[in-house]
Amino acid sequence: MEKKQIKEPIRKKWIWIALLLIVIGNVPWYLPVGSYEPLIFGVPYWALIILAFSLILCGFLSWVTLKEWDIVEDEEEAEKRGRVNE
Amino acid sequence: MNDLVFAGLDGVLILSAYAIVMLLIGYFSGRGDKTLHDSLSNYYLAGKNLGIVALFFTLYATQYSGNTIIGYAPTAYRTGFSWLQSISFMTIIIGVYLLFAPRMYVVSKKMNFITPADWISHRFKSKAVTILAVVLMLWGLGNYLLEQLVAIGHAASSLTGGTIPYQVAVIAFVLVMLIYEWLGGMKAVAFTDVMQGLVLMVGIVIFLVGAVYLVGGDFSSATQYIAANEPAKLGVPDMLTSVNWFSMLLLVGLGAAIYPHAVQRIFAADSERTLKRSFSRMAWMPPITTGLVFVIGILGIALIPNLDTAGSEQLVGLMANEIAGINGFFYWVMIIFFGAIVAAIVSTADSVLLSFSSIVSNDIYGRFINPKAPEKKKVMVGKVTGVLAVGLLLWIAWNPPATLYEIFVLKFELLVQVFPAFVLGLYWKRMAAQPVFWGMLAGAIIAGVLTWTGYKTVFGIHGGVIGLAANFFIAVVGSYLVPLTVEKEAELKKIDLA
Predict the structure, then answer these.
(1) What is the per-residue pLDDT for B5?
(2) B422 near A CB under 8 A
(3) Among candidates B104, B90, B112, B102, which has minimal Cα distance to B45?
(4) How far is residue B14's CA from residue B44's CA, in Å, rounded to a whole number?
């Protein structure tokens, strides 16, 4: 029988590089200290940048969790169905 | 938070209603399950059988406490827009889970783990490492619980405007919590979390609606006020704050992910699919929880300006007061909201207490004192010790020691020192017990001494993070110096997945 492909996030380097890049963008160290204009709908421009990175962080982690993590799910779900059919 | 316009009998009514609902949920979750109290796994981990709804809400309600609102809004008020970091440091926790939870889930099912120390003990086979890890975890949990107990009293007595004095409020809610936890264990904790988590979510949104209404529905008028009066809170923060922000991501991310009660939720999931889906949803919670609380704090700057530090701690109460004054609808909503804060604090405290008890049951009593005891007895020892611990913590809360107070502030700083052993040990077979022990000890001492001597941060970096760096260094370099034996390597094959 062919060995099942498992997906474990720790084994994929690109996940962690992407995460690091998002985190670096998420902290405003690269913007001029004290600046806040333009205000867009009353929100300082830089806060929107940080907020965008924060949402990217949420979306990225949520997506990775669902798509890049699959170790025993198939067996467990098959077992569950088996139990129901008994 | 005194002199709330909505304080008094109405508050007592709502609080009583919350208490009754919690007791009912606890009663029904424990009823009919005769094996609940006979097995560590059934009592502390709900039989490792939590489904998606219960698991998601118990993760949510445990991670976000009522303190998240009462404490974070004032921080946003004082520091301004740099408190946007509260969104990312709560999100990054999920990233840290991804480092270890997938494999930890599989190993924990295979080995039937009850507590994180089961893993540490299985991995390193060293009494010294296990005991040190247990001490750090109990210390962190104890202080966390203490903080929650203090918060319950503040929130409840302010809601009732002192109709229920602080100490009576604490005792009443602690009793409610102890009773439902005693009756239903993790099941009761998780099912009450569904209720507590829901009211917290709804409460924050309604509070925000009220605050926006008060500034005339116009967020930009609030920021214009800040620009005119306190531009520093609006601008890009200085480099020191940015460094501190990075440090915060590390400390909270690593610390919160390996909180024992958080790890035990990985053990309690009924399947990988459930666990994945819960985490995936949790990743979206920070913007609608700490994010909205942040906005509340910013609006507060314009609504109730010029509060000093102590005054700003009352911010949520002061704003609730004004919101309740809008009309009858908001009046009742604010009472329900404050009740939700109390419920949310209880929902965090109960999880912490359950985890505390499980470590006493499984790791102290079951591992070192009386390993042959039947599980029923181990469960009972944990429950009774939990009640005694709460008693002791209440005593400390009401008679705070004058000099050693800083010790009770340490939680993340110490807890996070278990991280290298816990996570690196999962993948790196060379990692050896002795260097892990010395690393953990050195990290804890550095973090403790720095915090204790008033250097909570050095150049913006938290003492806990500096201790962690030393900890990692000692554990890694030391492990390279210890030769790896063939037997040990064969034994560790068990944690390989494929």
Answers:
(1) 55
(2) no
(3) B112
(4) 30
